């Protein structure tokens, strides 16, 4: 009798955790959507102010906007692809984040070189990921 109860509990735990994870991701996507709208209002403020020639701040805000956008897109893809995060979205986010760092913090040439090498490594990883076959051996059930 106890083995049956333990078996039922072991089947319920992953479902409860999946529901909790989905709820947290929906909540995170709502927060990111709010921040995305906030970035849009910042764009308008920067764009509408006369004499604002701080193009670095404008470009940095654009890249932050894309980071929020990519995270929201990744969450949408997670639900569309039956609870799976595509690796390529993490690579896109990494490349965008590194480009933002190069634009915003380009005072030290060695740091800029390292950021550029990170971008190169991410692009090589993306290329390798695209040339490998998608067929994977099926798991034994």
UniProtKB/TrEMBL annotation:
Keywords: Cell membrane, Membrane, Transmembrane, Transmembrane helix. It is found in: Cell inner membrane. GO terms for biological process: cellular response to phosphate starvation. The keyword Nucleotidyltransferase does not apply. It holds the Pfam family PsiE. It is a multi-pass membrane protein. GO terms for cellular component: plasma membrane. Its main location: membrane. InterPro entries: P_starv_induced_PsiE (IPR009315), P_starv_induced_PsiE-like (IPR020948). The keyword Transport does not apply. It comes from the Bacteria. The chain crosses the membrane at residues 12-37, 57-77, 89-106, 112-131. Belongs to the PsiE family. This is Protein PsiE. It comes from Psychrobacillus vulpis. The gene is psiE.
